[in-house]
Amino acid sequence: MVEMGLLTQLLSCTDEAAWRDTLFTLARRQGFDQVVYGVVGSRQDKLESAFLQSNYSSSWRDRYDADRLHYVDPTVSHCLASSLPIVWEPETFNGARQRAFYEEACGHGIRSGITFPIHGPNGEFGVVSFASDALPDPREATQAIASLALIRDYAFESSLRFVRPQQQQDKPRLTRRELEVLKWVMVGKSSWEISKITNCSEATVNFHIGNVRQKFGVSTRQQALVKAIGMGILIPEDHHR
């Protein structure tokens, strides 16, 4: 499980160092001691211009950046074309150049991991990798995906202040019913459960959730929830009862 306190701490960080340390702590709690997080404001931006945070070894980062290995890295090419995470396995690195890339990474303690694509609602693109020096165990990696995906969502939303600090996001205006439904989403209730609590149909609940997603410019209720917390519209400790 992911600690909600650390997730909301990501949203409240006002400087990059505190944000980076919180992300690394979240990753360690999930069994991954190495992280690289990079986001550009647009898919048209050069990857070299990304907002980048990493605790990979400095020698590997220098080598990776100097030789622009992100254009060789199969996890990056995967993320450009897909919204699904990729679990590192030997088959992931299937060309001679990619295999050499992987063997060199192993020498720097980056042997196994999971990489998640980041596709923002305003054209942002990025990658976050959670890595370890342990031998790959696809079963354990699969079990960690849900928690790591949640960390990815919070990391992306909270990193926007550093990716595009000049832009201020306006808070969407939610109706009383939309806010009520979103509060119940925050405490983990399903649409069916919310319909019973609020004495309306499940279709009506989903209609309100759809409106909320549209107002926040996101595709899932979880992403809308992250944005609402980040903007101070909802406070996780203030559970709706």
Automatic annotation (TrEMBL):
The keyword Transmembrane does not apply. The keyword DNA-binding applies. Pfam families: Autoind_bind, GerE. InterPro entries: Sig_transdc_resp-reg_C-effctor, TF_LuxR_autoind-bd_dom, TF_LuxR_autoind-bd_dom_sf, Tscrpt_reg_LuxR_C, WH-like_DNA-bd_sf. PROSITE patterns: HTH_LUXR_1, HTH_LUXR_2. Residues 167-232 form the HTH luxR-type domain. Keywords: DNA-binding, Transcription, Transcription regulation. This is LuxR family transcriptional regulator. It comes from Massilia soli.
